[in-house]
Write a structure and sequence with these properties.
Helix content: 25-40%
Structural class: alpha/beta
CATH architecture of the largest domain: 3-Layer(aba) Sandwich
Largest sheet: 10 strands, mixed
Strand content: 15-25%
Order of helices and strands: EHEEHHEHHHEHEHEHEHEHEHHEEEE
CATH superfamily of the largest domain: Thiolase/Chalcone synthase
Number of strands: 14
CATH class of the largest domain: Alpha Beta
Strand order of the largest sheet: 5-4-6-7-1-8-14-13-9-10
Shape: globular
Radius of gyration: 20 Å
Number of domains: 2
């Protein structure tokens, strides 16, 4: 059995807005969310910039006691999930909660809690470590808390696949509905790792941009002068719903999810496979799963991290998967504005892709100033573009060689 799956609600916490409208308007306006790090003293780090979530108050979404028992990434997930449910007009009291599931990924999980409680252990001893340390820190607790606070009793899981976590979670949730194991899934990704330890690790790996004096220009996917990614944080959550279930309750259908592909590079812990071989297979599988041809795709929301190897090899992967049609595709990277949200990237970028289909506007790749001969496709540079978009891909490519692609298309009642 294969059932049609539509998107009926969207929620987002991001560096450029903590609600869908603000996020989308800033995205198509090309506004950068990158600035100096404020969450800790980064003066001794080679990278001192990040795309932080601003003016987030967890008490807008939960009570103070609940908030104290959640890591920041879980707070983001709960907030985005509640936004998405409201946007979908989905009242949990009017549906079968046993048929509503949750699938929210996180690449790293509760790093804030980990750091704080380790300091407690060192400075005050083991008896002072919080009994909530483990349930606050573990990556699955975003899905767990969303389930607890919404009453969703259906399939509940988490993907932890680095930067592909959000997209894997959405794709797996899509499969769950397709196969008849749930009617609704609350799916996406959440991350909050703008912390000293994460920064130290990525700085040691020389993976992040050091354009500290021009933070808004630091994330520049596919540009010849890119020098690394910019870390971001936030959450993106979608309400996926079986088509007849959505129609029966009069839901406002935003887009349809029609395909899911994934692959493994089997190559290296951080570097993508040469020429993007694994990413190309992920895209090809997703297109085949959707029952489409490469030429049916009009737009790709690229992984586009602003790192040397990713952008070059993702470009090669697109050429491998699409052939001559690669040069007719519109491609852009949300990360040019919101940074790299790691495990939340796929969730937030899926929200953006759904809005791109709904509004028929492609967000730009900002900071594209100097063309790279090895990145020679159409990256929708610097300004949003109105275009006819029938189907779109969203790519996520994670450390460890984890590749995930979902295919969204405009909804047609046929």
């Amino acid at each position: 059995m294969s059932r049609r799956v539509v998107i009926s609600g969207l929620g987002v916490i991001s560096p450029i807005g903590n609600d869908l409208s603000t996020f989308w308007n800033n995205l198509i306006a090309g506004k950068s969310g990158v600035g100096p790090v404020t969450q800790f003293d980064a003066s001794d780090y080679s990278t001192r910039i990040a795309a932080e979530v601003k003016n987030f108050d967890p008490l807008d979404y939960m009570d103070r006691k609940e908030a104290r028992r959640m890591d920041r990434f879980v707070q983001f997930a709960v907030a985005a999930a509640r936004q998405a449910l409201e946007h979908a007009g989905l009242d949990m009291n009017q549906v079968d909660a046993n048929r509503v599931g949750v699938y929210i990924g996180s690449g790293i999980g509760g790093l804030t809690t980990w750091e704080e409680q380790y300091q407690v252990l060192l400075n005050r001893g083991p008896n002072r470590v919080s009994p909530f340390f483990i349930p606050m820190m573990i990556s699955n607790m975003a899905a767990g808390q969303v389930s607890i606070l919404t009453g969703a009793k259906g399939p509940n899981s988490t993907s932890v696949s680095a930067c592909a976590s959000g997209t894997h979670s959405i794709g797996d949730a899509f499969r769950i509905i397709q196969h008849g194991d749930a009617d609704v899934m609350i799916a996406g990704g959440a991350e909050a790792t703008i912390r000293p330890l994460a920064f130290a690790g990525f700085c040691a790996a020389r993976a992040m941009s050091t354009r500290n004096d021009e933070p808004e220009k630091a994330s520049r996917p596919f540009d010849k002068d890119r020098d690394g990614f910019v870390m971001g944080e936030g959450a993106g959550v979608l309400i996926l719903e079986e088509l007849e279930h959505a129609k029966k309750r009069g839901a406002n259908i935003i887009a349809e999810i029609v395909g899911y592909g994934m692959s493994g590079d089997a190559y290296h812990v951080t570097s993508p496979a040469p020429e993007g071989e694994g990413a190309a297979r992920s895209m090809a599988h997703a297109i085949q799963d959707a029952g489409l041809k490469p030429e049916d795709i009009d737009y790709i929301n690229a992984h586009g991290t602003s790192t040397d190897l990713n952008d070059k090899f993702e470009t090669m992967a697109i050429k491998k998967a699409f052939g001559d049609h690669a040069y007719k595709l519109a491609i852009s990277s949300n990360k040019s504005m919101i940074g790299h949200l790691l495990g939340a990237a796929g969730g937030v970028e899926a929200v953006a892709t759904a809005m791109t289909l709904k509004e028929q506007i492609i967000p730009p790749t900002i900071n594209y100033e100097t063309p790279d001969p090895e990145c020679d496709l159409d990256y929708v540079p610097n300004e949003a573009r109105r275009a006819r978009i029938r189907a779109a891909l969203s790519n996520s490519l994670g450390f460890g060689g984890h590749n995930a692609t979902i295919v969204l298309k405009t909804y047609e009642d046929a």
